[in-house]
Amino acid sequence: MSLTGKAVWLTGASSGIGEALVPALLDAGVRLTISARRADALADVAARHPGASLHVLPLDVTDREAVHRAASDVRAQWGHIDIALFNAGTHIPVQAQTWSADDFRALIDVNYMSLVYGVEAVLPDMLARRQGHIAGVASVAGYRALPTAAAYGASKAAAILMLDALRFDVERQGIAVSVINPGFVRTPLTDRNRFHMPGIIDAPRAAALIVRGLEHRAREIHFPALFSWTMKLLRVLPYPLYHRLVMWNTPE
Ligand SMILES: NC(=O)c1ccc[n+]([C@@H]2O[C@H](COP(=O)([O-])OP(=O)(O)OC[C@H]3O[C@@H](n4cnc5c(N)ncnc54)[C@H](OP(=O)(O)O)[C@@H]3O)[C@@H](O)[C@H]2O)c1
Known about the structure:
Strand order of the largest sheet: 3-2-1-4-5-6-9
CATH topology: Rossmann fold
CATH class: Alpha Beta
CATH superfamily: NAD(P)-binding Rossmann-like Domain
Order of helices and strands: EHEHEHEHEHEEEHEHH
Helix content: 40-55%
Number of helices: 8
Bound molecules: NADP nicotinamide-adenine-dinucleotide phosphate
Strand content: 15-25%
Oligomer: single chain
Number of domains: 1
Number of strands: 9
């Protein structure tokens, strides 16, 4: 399905995958609202697209009331929301020695509850219109436990499960739900990593794959193919075998 003329709300648009999605979505012909906390960074992104159908809406996605107000603003701007693309998120590695519940709460808030707030804010209007598309960026790290990803993986697993469950309720009412599970993508988030990131791709490539998946209203958009299919295969291994494999590949 062509995205031309669709009203799209994108969060996390000030850097990384979200920033790369802006030109990709505009090239596909959408009317776009972009959100993130840093208003200056959003203004810089917008300045690169003079004359585009682009609306800037700074937002902290962990603030439930603000998410609701923002959804109303997007509807006021474009009339309705065709596609809500919830991409904002972050990663905090956790280790046993520095284990803190604060990290878990922070990641659950930004990677999971923000999606719940977003769905709460856009779903009633989509149900009333019997059309719409909700897409959330999770991660292949949500498939199965990985070292240092106790908090991140749990937040992304929750996001995957929530969106997959929502789909059962809304698909027959004309609403598509896409779960987006990237492998490694080169962004400010992964620039912090000091380990080898197998199969890493550039953000514009990730954005192109996401746009193609949205055009197909795909239930899952996962990439890069070799890496994400490997992660899917690992998901079905019996746990003792999976544990051994991960331990073999984890330096002391
Ligand atoms: N890069 C990867 O390899 C990879 C792999 C799998 C999944 N992902 C997921 O992809 C998404 C984008 O990640 P990225 O790699 O592009 O990271 P990034 O470059 O750090 O971008 C994260 C974006 O989220 C926004 N954001 C963070 N907290 C927010 C908040 N409380 N309210 C509003 N916006 C917030 C940031 O904007 P502000 O700071 O301006 O608020 C920024 O625009 C995340 O959900 C991430 O978990 C990334």
